[in-house]
Amino acid sequence: MINNMKQLTVDLGGRSYPIYIGTQLLTQVNLLTQHIKSKQVLVVTNTTIAPLYLQSFLENLSTYQLESIILPDGEQYKTLAYVENIFTHLLTAKFNRNATLIALGGGVIGDMGGFAAACYQRGINFIQVPTTLLAQVDSSVGGKTGVNHILGKNMIGAFYQPQAVIADISVLKTLDDRQLAAGIAEIIKYGLIRDYEFFEWLEVNIELLVQKDEQSLAFAIERSCLNKAAVVAEDEHESGIRAILNLGHTFGHAIETGVGYGKYLHGEAVAIGTCLAADLSRRLGYLNDADVARIIAIFKRVNLPVLSPKNLTVNRYIELMLVDKKNIEGIIRLIVLEKIGKAMLPISVEMSILEQTLNDYQGR
Ligand code: NAD
Ligand code: GLY
Predict the structure, then answer these.
(1) Which residues are CB-contacts of 51 (< 8 A; sequence separation ≥ 6)?
(2) Does any domain span residue 1?
(3) Cα–Cα distances in Å, from 102 out to 45, 147, 286?
(4) Of 134, 138, 266, 326, which is best to mutate to test ligand 2, by the most ligand atoms within 8 angstroms of its C-beta?
(5) CB under 6 Å to ligand 1: residues?
(6) What is the reported pTM?
(7) What is the pLDDT of residues 225-239, one digit of tens each?
(8) 89 an active-site residue?
């Protein structure tokens, strides 16, 4: 049981917002209502989260003109078509531009809800209530919203910051082990890209996260959000340093698109991608063999995959990696590690070296 709620700030001048982290936060109604601007509130969630949390969530908001929309659950539904359903709901309820949209769910609901809030009447009030570990440490913070396209992951979207992020650790009790591990993949990322001390803490304590020890989860969520908030405050629209948050993601997105959305969890694809990025960093002379072994070992301890899907050929991988937002003029640019705890800005990598990495990490 954590007694103290932590409050962090994403510092973006006039658009700064708080991240609240703690247990039983969903029962603290004022935390949420202080960020609601008018009577009209739409809660966006999905078919898995609704039976667990929606009813009590709505009861807390009974004084509002309240609507909810329950979307199908899955990465494969993170599409424009389902965002259009949100627009239809908002229009049918005659919601105006002072309305508030609350995303109650994991990264899929947060990304779609945020994108709908960014577009509806050119922008309405938006609150993130992340319910997966991945969403609490990453996707709910920083304002990246959007949907997938059949030809590329997260290719349609907008930067749109929420008014607040409410990360209630208590809801993680119902999250299954595979989803929890996917969130831990993004936590490991922060240690690798800019926080060596945190990486060392994870090497000692990672099993406590797997066991859902609340103190450890609270610490890891706070530390992850501190890292993310610092990067976002420095480079909100990813013209520079924010790209390091994408360590392993170019490989990961290629896996997600290549094998079909939903087959690999986002965090699983990121785990594989990070091992590939580590191997590439070694080939380029930054990391040594022991560093790469340390990185692979920590992912394995949480049962995350470290090898690419068998059926994703090197040619197909490269074709998919060519559709990435970091690329410039058709050249693949990747994040590599200068050392554990320090990522470099995107660099272009010789195709032959990239192919060696892709070949060596092919699942058998
Ligand atoms: P997700 O949203 O699909 O949630 C994972 C699963 O857990 C779903 O089945 C969901 O219904 C279920 N779930 C959610 N909360 C639960 C709870 N408390 N108890 C039980 N089950 C629960 O996946 P995710 O891992 O949260 O997010 C992945 C998505 O986030 C991807 O689409 C990825 O692209 C995106 N993402 C976005 C950013 C960003 O900056 N915007 C960053 C990282 C990832
Ligand atoms: N998840 C990467 C970013 O927010 O920039």
Answers:
(1) none
(2) no
(3) 9, 17, 43
(4) 138
(5) 46, 48-49, 52, 73, 75, 78, 105-109, 111, 131-132, 134-135, 138-139, 142, 144, 154, 171, 174-175, 179, 182, 266-267
(6) 0.97
(7) 999 999 999 999 999
(8) no
